[in-house]
Amino acid sequence: MESAAGSANGGYGNTRSRPSPELLNYARRLRELREEPMPAVLDTSCVRTGLHNHLATGSLPASLQAVADRTIRLFMELETLRETLRKLPEFASQLSVPPSELNRIFADDWLPLISVVSLPPELRALDDRAVAVRDLDADDYPTAALAALLSPCILLTHNHRHFQPLGVRMPSQGVDAVFAVMDLKIGETQVQAIAMVPVAPVVATAATVQWAWEKIGPVTLLILAVLVVGGIELYRRQPAERKQRIRSVAADAGHFLLEESAKACTKVQQAESLLGACAVPAPEPRSVTSAVFRELAMAHDSMSAQRLYDELDGSVRASVPRLRSFLHANKPSVFLEVRRGSFALGAPYVIRRAATSPVDTSSG
Predict the structure, then answer these.
(1) In this structure, are residues 64 and 113 in contact, taking their beta carbons and an 8 Å threshold?
(2) Which string of DSSP letters, residue by residue, matches 6-62?
(3) In this structure, is residue 156 part of a structural domain?
């Protein structure tokens, strides 16, 4: 029979067993920070620094390397991209390189890694934080609106003054977030690798047994039993000193694995903490449009309207009005129909080279 306490609590029993809304929100924020690829938004103020590092080292900056590795996915608002293209000759002069060379680097090495989105006015104003950035500087409004819709995300900008409403407090915050994402991935890989070490012999044995079973059948079990019993008997016949040495080596190996596991877990926690401090926080509450944007931003392939609907969180799914119509109404400026009925967020931007000038900034 249901207890009185259980009845009073709607059948849930002790209310302390139910997580609080604050704990659920914290768990959700933590899960979103670990999702890959992590969305990132590029601002013009970060392009010049990235191009300077590119020229100095001869390789892509860390943020674009992370895009190539599919650790993050990089977006840029169309107005911001056009502003960047207008400023490339100025950057070339500051960096003492021919404009044609800087144009080539940006067009050939950078743009293929960037998805470009052109937000209509009604979508820019959905997040109050973006509107607050607009009030500080209208030129930063498109970037702020895109970052707000994709948040939690990385905002690659050195302009910490105008982007304060989005939680940007330091010029290096976006780059720090990129390194935090990379450290988080490395740390998690190390934790998984260390966890696999003790089970590796078991996995190898299981694979060997399966192979032998396929070759010689049930006799495999008899052979395995003989090997196990033989190993135990061999250990028992060892002198006490050698037994102690075997136990000591095993203990040292276990202690080493524990230490390395603790180091890797600490690295993950530190990277997670840094990323949480540097990333643009998630909106509270998240709008349906933001949920759609973020789901597509993290997708490894284009998605149909039905698949996108199925992937949305249950808290917003019921509020999705005519998703297919929304996707079609905002193509190709926001959503690219990769193939019939399958959509991606953003589209490539192609700079067409003309015979009379280094670049022609027309959209591809």
Answers:
(1) yes
(2) HHHTTT---GGGSPPHHHHHHHHHHHHHH-SSEEEEE-HHHHHHHHHHHHHHSS--H
(3) yes
β-strands 38-42, 154-156 pairing: parallel
Please return the burial class of 76, using the count of CB atoms within 10 Å of its CB with bins 0-12, 13-18 and 19+: buried
- Taking a C-beta distance cutoff of 8 angstroms, is the pair 156, 181 a contact? no
Domain boundary among 230, 257, 275: 275
Question: Do both 248 and 333 map to the same domain?
Answer: no
Tens-place pLDDT, residues 199-255: 445 444 555 546 554 555 565 555 556 555 666 656 566 677 665 665 665 555 555
Q: Are residues 250 and 306 in the same domain?
A: no
Q: Characterize the bridge pairing of strands 303-304 and 342-345.
A: antiparallel
Do you find a cis peptide bond into 283, omega within 30 degrees of 0? Answer: no
Q: Is residue 179 part of a domain?
A: no
153 bridge partner residues: 280
Six token digits for residue 363: 């959209």
Does residue 357 lie in a domain region?
yes
Please give the residue range of the domain that contains residue 161.
35-168+280-364
Tokens linked to 58: 């001869």
Query: Could you give the number of structural domains in the chain?
Result: 2
Determine phi and psi for 156, rounding to 5 degrees: -85, 95
Contacts (Cβ under 8 Å, ≥6 apart) of 13: 3, 5, 6
Last residue of a domain, one of 226, 256, 275: 275
Lowest mean pLDDT among 68-72, 224-228, 287-291, 359-363: 359-363
- DSSP lists the bridge partners of residue 155 as 41
Q: How many CB atoms lie within 10 A of CB 209?
A: 14
Which residues fall within 8 angstroms of residue 338, CB to CB, at 6 or more apart? 302, 344
- What residue has token string 């276990």? 254
